[in-house]
Write a structure and sequence with these properties.
This protein is α/β, with parallel strands linked by helices and 152 residues long. Helix content is 34%, strand content 18%. It has a single domain, classed as 3-Layer(aba) Sandwich (Rossmann fold). The longest helix has 13 residues. The chain is globular. The protein starts with a strand and ends in an 11-residue tail after the last helix. The mean pLDDT is 90. It is an enzyme of class 4 (lyase). Pfam families: DHquinase_II.
Length: 152
Amino acid sequence: MSTLLLLNGPNLGTLGRRQPEIYGTTTLDEIAGQVAAEVADRGWTVESVQLDGEGELVRAVQDRYDTVGAIVNPGALMIHGWSLRDALAAYPRPWIEVHLSNVWARESFRHESVLSALAAGVIVGLGAPGYRLAARALLDLVPVPDSPAGAR
């Protein structure tokens, strides 16, 4: 069975309670369940990891090179997470950056991500459904084992 990494950064462990007017009321456990349901038909499981420290996130990425891909919400580390960027640059599978809120509709310091250029794609501003969209994208990006070349 293959595993999809669902990686969430600082402060995202309080989703559902933290500023619901910005981040919604869906919890991280609920998001993980929704992503798991989205990828179940492919036979994938989801490993949900939420850590508040950048070094811990780096280790989480490095320890999971064997996953099929990743959905990454770096939280505020999108702005200055250079060691996380280096870890994701070495991650050997496709990954999608996700943000619950529309970062470009918020404070100007949130308008640039040091990670986005490395991602296979970026989804912002769609709330919790953005994670499911990222999962669908990864289903398209990751080839089905034992299928003809190029088949998804």
